[in-house]
Recover the amino acids of this structure.
C-alpha cells in the first residue's frame, strides 16, 4: 500500500435484498487514522455500506479493498480473521453478550485472537478504565445502563487495537448528554490508538465528531467538505 | 371470574392471531402436550387392560368344583391341561371330553370339539399355517374345526387350543360342570408389582416434566408480546392470565391431538406383544376417572405452569422484560423428598417379600415415587450449584457456563425428565439382572442342555411300558444324547411320607453308585430316610408294601443340579421293578431327564413332540426356564427403548428451547459473527450448554438408579450387582442426545449468525 493509497476503499458497490436496492453504485475511501461519518436518512443504505466495508456483507457488484487487498475475493474464514484482528465494531444496541460480565465481553475478541484468559482480562480492564467504566467490570450487561453499555462496547471494539473501527449509530439509543460523552471517548480512544473510524449516523451532532462526512442517499454516496474541527 | 374468562379468551385469541411465530409455538406446545397426553391415556388404560384380561381368564377358568368331582352326569365335562411351550412361547391347551349332552362349553367356542377335533386361537392358527409352525403342527396334527373367539382368550396373541379327546379318564382329568368357577385372579408377583410401580413412575414423571416444558415453549417471545399489552394498560395479573389463555389453547389442542394419537396407538395394540402379553384394542380404554383427570388436569396444569413461570418475570410496558432477581433454589425440601422415600424403603430392605401384603406395596410404591420425584426436584438445585462453581476453559466453555449461570432453570427442569427416566431404567435393569438369577437357575448357567419330563400315570395303561417306554421314546427323538427315566411313588408310614423311585439297575446306577445290583434289589440312601429294611409302608392310598429285608443302605454322594431332576433330587428309596413284584402298583408319576445335543436345531421341540405323542398333558421343563430369561430380555430391551425414547423426547424439548434461545440471541450472535467469532466456537458452546446439565442429570440418575435397584434387590433377597452394560448404554444414549441436539441446532445457528441479524431498519 502506497502512502497515498487509502486504508479502506470501496468502488461502485451495489447490493440488493430481494426487490429492495440498498446500495446502487456507492463508493468511499477512508485514510488511516481518519474519522469518516456516513450520513443519510433511514433506509438510505448507510448501514449496508458499513457492512460491505467491514466484510460482513458481500456486495453484489463492486470492489472493497483494505490495504490494497480485495475483500470481495476473500473467503469467509479470511474475512472472519480480518474482522477479528484488524477491525472493531460498535453497534446501536444489543451487542454485548448478556451472559458474560463486562470484562469478559471486552476480553472476548482478545481470547478469540488467541490471548490467554488472564492476559485478555487484564487488557480488557485497562480498556474499561480508559472508557471510564472500570467499576462495571464484574457486572453483566443487564445490570448496567445503555450509555455504560455503549462504553463497554467501545472498549471491546478497541481492545484488539484495530486499524479500523466501524460504529453503526453508536449513540442512537442514548440521550444527548450520554451520546456526547460516548462520542468524545470513542474519538479520543480511536485517535490515541491510531484507528480509522467509519461512523454511521443520521445525527449531524454525532457527525460533527468526524473529520469528514459521506452522505448516502438512495444507495449512492456523495462526499462533502471536511468537517471543521 | 368473568374478568378471568375474558382475559383467558384474549390470550386464546392472541395465540390464534399472533402470526406464524405464534402459531409455530402453539403447534410445538400442542405436539409436546399431545405426546404426553397419549402416554397418559395409555397408562390410564392399564387398569382396564388388566381387568379385561382377568375377567376373560376368570370366565374360562376350569377348576374342578366340589359337587362335580363327585360323579359324572349329563352336565359334566372332563378337562385336562395341556400347557406347552413352543420356541419359548407359551401355549394354553385343554383336552375336553363331554360326559353328557349338557356339558358346559368354554367361552369363545360355539360348541365342544368332538374327539380329535381342534379349536385354536387365531394366533395359533396363523402359527400352525406358517413355515415356522411346521414342527408344532406335528404336535397338533388334528383337523382344525374352528377358532376360539376373543372372549375365550386372554389376549389377541395368545396361543391356545381346545382338543376333543375320548381318552380322558377320571384319574388324569378334572370334572367340571361349568366354566368360570370363582377363582381369584392370580395377581402380579410382588416382585413384578414393585417393578411395575417403578416402570409407571419412571414413565409418567418424565411425561409430566415434558408437558410442563412443552407449555413453556416460546415463553420469551410471548413475554415480549405481553410487554406490548402492558403498554396498553394491562396490569401484571391480567398479563399473566392472558399468557395462561395462550397456553390453554395450545394445551387444549394438544389434548385433542393426544386423543387422536391415543386412538391410533389403540388401533395398533393387537400387534404389540410384551412379556408374552397382548391386549385387545377394546381393552385399551382409559378408566373414566383417570381419563377425566387427564382431560381436566393437563389444561389446568398448562395454566398453572404458565402462571408459576411468569411469577419470576417482570413485564414492563416499554417492551422491556426483566427476569425478576433469581431466587436461590432451596435444598431442604428437595432433599426431603428422596430422604422420605428412602425412609419408606429402608424398613423393606432385607425383609424378603415384606413388600407384599399389609400395605407393603403401597409403602414400596410411595418410597420409589418419592425417590424418583425427589431426583426431579433435586436436579435443578444440583445443576445450579455446580454451574455456579464452573469457570476457566475456552471461549465456548465460558459462553456455555455463563449462559447456564444466568439461567440454568430451563435446562435443569427439562433434564429432570431424563434423570427420572434413566434412574428408573437403571433401577429396573439392576433389579432385573439380580432377579433374573432367581428365575434363570444355575443349571442353564452351567451351559448343560437338560430337560425334565413329568408324566402322571392315569392308571389306565396309557403309559404301558412305563419308564422304559418313556426313555426309549425320548432316546429316539432328534437331538437327544441320552435319557434316564424312573417311576416315582409316594410311600407313607405313619404321618411321614417318602419318595420311592423305581427303575432298572442300569438307570439306578446312573443315578447313585449303588454298586452291585440285580432286579429285585432295593436301596436306602444313608441319612436321607427314616425307613429301614423290612419297614411296612403304604403306596398311594392303600397299597401295602414292605421294604425288602435285604435292601442295602448306600451313600449318596450328591450331584450337580445341571444333571437333571432324575439325578439331582436325592430320593431316599430306590427300587428295581422286581422289588415291587406282586404289588398292585397304584398310579404313579414318570420322571425323565433328557440330555440334549444343542447343535441340533429345535431338539427340545422334538422332545416335546415325542412326549405329547405319549401324553399331551405331560409337563416338560427345560433347565433354567428359558422363557423367563427371554421375557426378562424382552422387558429389558423394552425398558431400554423406553428410556431412550424419553431421552429423545427430552432431547426434542431441549432442541426447541435451544432454538428459541438462538432466536432470542440473534443480535448478540450476529455481533459476535461481525467481530469474527468462528461459528464452531458458538457451536461448541451449545454443545457444552446441553452436555453439562445432561451429564449432571445422568450422574445423579446413575447414582439414584443404582441405589434404588440395590434396595429393590435387597428387598427381594437377591444379591446386589450393578448392571454396568445398561448404565453404559444409557450414558451413551445421553451423549448421543447431546450430540444430536447440537447438530440439529447448527442450521439455525448458521442462519442466526448471518449479518442480517445486525440490520435494524
Amino acid at each position: 500500500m502506497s502512502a497515498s493509497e487509502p486504508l479502506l476503499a470501496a468502488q461502485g458497490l451495489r447490493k440488493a435484498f430481494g426487490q429492495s436496492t440498498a446500495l446502487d453504485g456507492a463508493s468511499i475511501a477512508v485514510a488511516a487514522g481518519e474519522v469518516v461519518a456516513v450520513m443519510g436518512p433511514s433506509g438510505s443504505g448507510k448501514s449496508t455500506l458499513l457492512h460491505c466495508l467491514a466484510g460482513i456483507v458481500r456486495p453484489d457488484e463492486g470492489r472493497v479493498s483494505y490495504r490494497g487487498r480485495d475483500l470481495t475475493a476473500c473467503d469467509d474464514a479470511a474475512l472472519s480473521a480480518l474482522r477479528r484482528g484488524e477491525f472493531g465494531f460498535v453497534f446501536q444496541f444489543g451487542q454485548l453478550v448478556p451472559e458474560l460480565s463486562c470484562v469478559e465481553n471486552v476480553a472476548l475478541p482478545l481470547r478469540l485472537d488467541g490471548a490467554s484468559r488472564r492476559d485478555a482480562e487484564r487488557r480488557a480492564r485497562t480498556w474499561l478504565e480508559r472508557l471510564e467504566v472500570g467499576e462495571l467490570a464484574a457486572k453483566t450487561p443487564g445490570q448496567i445502563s445503555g450509555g455504560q453499555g455503549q462504553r463497554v462496547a467501545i472498549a471491546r471494539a478497541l481492545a484488539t487495537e484495530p486499524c479500523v473501527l466501524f460504529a453503526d449509530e453508536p449513540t442512537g439509543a442514548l440521550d444527548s448528554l450520554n451520546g456526547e460523552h460516548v462520542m468524545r471517548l470513542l474519538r479520543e480512544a480511536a485517535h490515541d490508538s491510531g484507528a480509522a473510524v467509519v461512523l454511521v449516523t443520521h445525527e449531524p451532532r454525532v457527525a460533527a465528531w468526524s473529520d469528514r462526512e459521506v452522505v448516502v442517499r438512495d444507495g449512492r454516496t456523495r462526499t462533502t467538505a471536511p468537517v471543521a474541527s | 371470574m368473568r374478568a378471568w374468562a375474558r382475559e383467558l379468551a384474549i390470550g386464546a385469541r392472541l395465540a390464534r392471531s399472533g402470526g406464524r411465530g405464534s402459531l409455530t409455538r402453539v403447534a410445538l406446545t400442542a405436539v409436546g402436550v399431545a405426546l404426553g397426553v397419549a402416554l397418559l391415556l395409555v397408562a390410564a388404560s392399564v387398569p382396564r387392560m388388566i381387568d379385561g384380561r382377568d375377567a376373560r381368564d376368570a370366565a374360562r377358568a376350569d377348576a374342578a368344583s366340589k359337587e362335580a368331582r363327585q360323579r359324572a352326569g349329563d352336565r359334566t365335562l372332563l378337562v385336562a391341561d395341556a400347557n406347552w411351550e413352543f420356541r419359548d412361547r407359551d401355549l394354553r391347551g385343554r383336552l375336553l371330553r363331554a360326559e353328557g349332552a349338557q356339558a358346559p362349553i368354554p367361552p369363545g367356542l360355539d360348541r365342544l370339539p368332538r374327539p380329535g377335533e381342534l379349536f385354536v386361537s387365531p394366533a395359533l392358527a396363523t402359527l400352525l399355517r406358517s413355515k415356522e409352525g411346521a414342527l408344532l403342527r406335528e404336535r397338533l396334527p388334528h383337523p382344525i374345526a374352528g377358532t376360539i373367539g376373543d372372549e375365550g382368550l386372554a389376549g389377541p396373541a395368545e396361543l391356545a387350543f381346545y382338543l376333543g379327546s375320548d381318552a380322558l379318564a377320571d384319574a388324569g382329568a378334572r370334572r367340571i360342570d361349568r366354566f368360570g368357577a370363582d377363582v381369584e385372579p392370580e395377581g402380579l408377583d410382588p416382585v413384578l408389582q414393585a417393578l411395575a410401580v417403578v416402570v409407571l413412575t419412571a414413565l409418567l414423571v418424565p411425561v409430566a416434566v415434558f408437558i410442563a416444558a412443552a407449555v413453556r415453549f416460546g415463553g420469551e417471545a410471548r413475554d415480549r408480546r405481553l410487554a406490548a399489552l402492558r403498554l396498553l394498560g394491562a396490569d401484571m395479573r391480567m398479563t399473566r392470565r392472558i399468557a395462561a389463555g395462550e397456553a390453554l389453547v395450545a394445551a387444549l389442542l394438544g389434548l385433542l391431538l393426544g386423543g387422536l394419537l391415543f386412538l391410533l396407538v389403540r388401533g395398533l395394540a393387537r400387534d404389540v406383544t410384551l412379556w408374552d402379553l397382548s391386549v385387545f384394542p377394546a381393552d385399551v380404554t382409559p378408566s373414566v376417572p383417570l381419563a377425566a383427570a387427564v382431560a381436566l388436569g393437563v389444561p389446568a396444569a398448562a395454566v398453572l405452569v404458565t402462571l408459576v413461570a411468569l411469577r419470576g418475570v417482570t413485564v414492563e410496558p416499554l417492551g422491556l422484560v426483566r427476569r425478576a432477581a433469581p431466587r436461590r433454589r432451596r435444598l431442604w425440601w428437595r432433599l426431603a423428598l428422596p430422604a422420605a422415600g428412602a425412609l419408606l424403603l429402608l424398613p423393606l430392605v432385607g425383609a424378603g417379600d415384606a413388600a407384599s401384603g399389609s400395605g407393603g406395596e403401597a409403602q414400596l410404591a410411595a418410597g420409589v415415587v418419592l425417590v424418583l420425584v425427589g431426583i426431579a426436584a433435586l436436579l435443578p438445585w444440583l445443576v445450579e450449584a455446580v454451574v455456579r462453581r464452573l469457570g476457566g476453559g475456552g471461549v465456548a466453555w465460558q459462553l456455555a457456563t455463563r449462559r447456564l449461570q444466568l439461567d440454568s432453570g430451563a435446562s435443569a427442569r427439562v433434564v429432570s425428565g431424563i434423570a427420572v427416566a434413566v434412574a428408573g431404567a437403571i433401577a429396573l435393569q439392576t433389579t432385573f439382572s439380580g432377579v433374573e438369577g432367581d428365575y434363570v437357575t444355575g443349571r442353564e448357567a452351567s451351559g448343560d442342555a437338560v430337560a425334565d419330563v413329568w408324566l402322571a400315570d392315569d392308571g389306565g395303561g396309557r403309559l404301558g411300558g412305563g419308564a422304559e417306554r418313556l426313555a426309549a421314546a425320548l432316546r429316539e427323538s432328534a437331538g437327544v444324547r441320552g435319557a434316564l427315566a424312573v417311576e416315582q411313588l409316594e410311600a407313607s408310614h405313619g404321618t411321614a411320607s417318602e419318595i420311592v423311585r423305581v427303575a432298572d439297575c442300569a438307570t439306578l446306577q446312573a443315578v447313585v453308585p449303588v454298586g452291585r445290583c440285580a432286579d429285585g434289589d432295593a436301596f436306602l440312601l444313608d441319612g436321607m430316610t427314616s425307613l429301614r429294611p423290612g419297614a411296612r409302608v403304604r403306596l398311594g392310598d392303600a397299597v401295602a408294601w414292605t421294604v425288602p429285608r435285604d435292601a442295602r443302605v448306600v451313600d449318596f454322594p450328591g450331584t450337580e443340579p445341571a444333571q437333571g431332576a432324575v439325578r439331582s433330587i436325592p430320593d431316599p428309596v430306590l427300587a428295581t421293578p422286581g422289588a415291587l413284584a406282586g404289588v398292585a402298583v397304584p398310579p404313579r408319576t414318570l420322571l425323565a431327564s433328557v440330555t440334549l445335543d444343542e447343535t441340533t436345531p429345535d431338539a427340545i421341540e422334538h422332545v416335546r413332540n415325542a412326549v405329547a405323542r405319549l401324553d399331551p398333558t405331560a409337563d416338560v421343563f427345560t433347565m433354567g426356564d428359558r422363557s423367563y430369561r427371554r421375557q426378562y430380555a424382552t422387558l429389558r430391551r423394552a425398558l431400554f427403548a423406553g428410556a431412550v425414547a424419553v431421552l429423545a423426547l427430552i432431547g426434542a424439548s431441549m432442541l426447541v428451547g435451544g432454538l428459541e434461545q438462538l432466536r432470542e440471541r440473534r443480535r448478540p450472535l450476529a455481533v459476535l459473527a461481525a467481530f469474527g467469532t468462528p461459528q464452531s466456537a458458538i457451536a461448541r458452546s451449545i454443545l457444552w450448554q446441553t452436555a453439562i446439565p445432561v451429564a449432571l442429570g445422568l450422574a445423579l440418575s446413575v447414582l439414584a438408579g443404582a441405589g434404588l435397584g440395590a434396595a429393590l434387590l435387597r428387598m427381594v433377597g437377591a444379591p446386589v450387582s450393578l448392571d454396568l452394560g445398561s448404565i453404559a448404554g444409557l450414558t451413551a444414549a445421553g451423549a448421543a442426545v447431546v450430540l444430536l441436539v447440537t447438530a440439529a441446532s447448527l442450521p439455525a445457528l448458521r442462519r442466526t449468525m448471518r449479518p442480517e441479524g445486525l440490520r435494524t431498519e
Q: What stands out?
A: The interface with chain A takes residues 322, 392, 394-395, 398-399, 402-403, 405-406, 665, 667-668, 671-678, 681, 755, 758-761 of chain B (CB under 8 Å). The first strand of chain B starts at residue 77 and ends at 81.
